[in-house]
C-alpha cells in the first residue's frame, strides 16, 4: 500500500499511538489502514465411500488436485463460503457437516477451514472455470503425489485416519514455511 | 475505498472478468482491491474453578465485560493471536487448549474464534490499557447482563452447559443481525 485509499495522500508506515505494530497511516486524513489474515473456506465432499477432488485450472498449483475451497467473502458465514466455493468449483450443492480442520498458515497470513460435506447425488460438473476436471475418488485412488496444498493433504490424511479409527475429529493445526517446500510429500 | 492504494487513481466498483461480485478496481493500474472477513481470536481463561473476564476500557461496549479477544494479526497463528490478545488485555500468559467456538458474524464480516486456556497462576493485571478491570469469576457470579458481545455470551453459556454435562464441545455457530440488538439478554 502506497497511497491512502480514502484521500489519495501517500501513506507512512508508523506505529500508531497505543499500538505496537507499524501500520500504513495517512498523515493527511488520519486513516490507519489495517491488514489482517484472510480465511480460505472449503469442504471435503463425500458421496457414499468416495471423496470429490478438483484439478486446478488456475495458478497457483495449476493442474494439481485439491479440495474445493477459496476466499471467504464479506457478508457470508464460514459454512456459506465453503458451500459457495464447492458449487463454483465442482457444480455440486452440498450439505455442510462437522468442522474438520482449522489450519493457520502464518507465513502467508491465511487460515484454511474445511468442513465435512455430503453430496446429495454423485452428479457433478465434468469441469468448471476453476477446475480442469472434477472427480470422485475412492480413498485408495487419491493422487497423494499431486495434491496442490499441504493444508488439503493434511485434511485428507487426517480424515482417512479418523475414518479408520471410527471417530471424525476437529483438528487445529499450523503449517510452517518449511512445509510449503514439501508440497509433493 | 475511494482511491487505488497502489497508484492513487480513483477506483470504480465493477465486476472483474471471471468474477461475480463488485470489487474496487483501478482502471489505471488494473489492481483489484479485495476486502474479506476479519478474524477475532480470543480465549476463555480458566484458573481452577474460575473464569477470567475483563471490563472493556474502549468502545464499542466500553464498561461491559468480555473474554480477552481481538483482531488476529498477519504472520501469526490463531493460537498465537488468542494468546497475544489475552496477554495484552489481562497481563496473563495462558496455555491454549481446545477450540471452543467458531462464530461467523456475517453482518459485520467477522469470525470470532475462542479457545479454552489455562492460566498458570491466579495472578493477573488489575487493569490494562484495554481493560478497566480484570477479574476471576466463579460461574455463579458471572455478570450475564453486562456481557459486551453475543459471541462472548454464547461461548460462556455453552462452556457452562458443557462443564455440567461433563464434555467440552467445539461449537460452530452464526450470529444474525437481530441478535446484535439483544446484547443484554
Automatic annotation (TrEMBL), chains A, B:
Keyword Kinase: no
Domain Nudix hydrolase, first and last residues per copy: 36-160
Cofactor field: Mg(2+)
GO molecular function: hydrolase activity
UniProt-listed Pfam families: NUDIX (PF00293), Zn_ribbon_Nudix (PF14803)
Keywords from the UniProt entry: Hydrolase, Magnesium
InterPro entries reported in the protein's UniProt record: Nudix_hydrolase, NUDIX_hydrolase-like_dom_sf, NUDIX_hydrolase_CS, NUDIX_hydrolase_dom, Nudix_N
Keyword Metal-binding: no
UniProt record similarity statement: Belongs to the Nudix hydrolase family.
Protein name in the entry: NUDIX hydrolase
